[in-house]
Design goal:
single chain; alpha/beta; Rossmann fold; nine-stranded mixed β-sheet; three-stranded mixed β-sheet; 5 helices; 12 strands
Length: 209
Amino acid sequence: MNTDKNKRTIELLDIGAGNTGSVRRCLNRLGIESISVGKDRAISGDLPVIFPGVGSFGAVMRLLEASGQKERLVEVIEAGVPYLGICVGMQVLLEGSEESPGVAGLGLIEGMVKKFDSGKVPQIGWNLVEPQTETQNKTQTENNSGYAYFVNSYYAAPNNESVISHRSQYYRDFASGIKKDNITAYQFHPERSGDYGESLMESWLDATN
């Protein structure tokens, strides 16, 4: 991987199901080059991957399948390539979702995606994100709580709560961040969450070198 901080490059998975524009602008502000993969270019396996999924669980999984990137994404993640999932890019890591019964997720995290059963759905707006104190190997930035921007009707419910790196409250406690080995994922949109979100993005990027 490229170890020159001023010339770092990541691959941005674009299958027509993500707000890649806002993520790319955030990366530009951080001095990171991004290469689009997923449609006409396969995931290389040589660079960190960001998947900013937006839309329904089932539609995103169908687009992954149609693009030919579903198996490739699992392959590179299992090989240890750093992965950052955003919004549905986090949810697809699990085994399935109540949003799309019968549609299998990537199955890299055991558990299901569930629908909020209280309050106004979807949750839209800013909410407090708090790190899990028992999560190991966090940087100082990741130890900080902050407010992030959410747009979600569903939340990830991992079977093993030790993979939950951040939690938030919306009529119930829910996982707003996941960390397992080379997998990092956020239910919120760090690229739209001001200085706090950018600090999380930068922390993840620093950890990929």
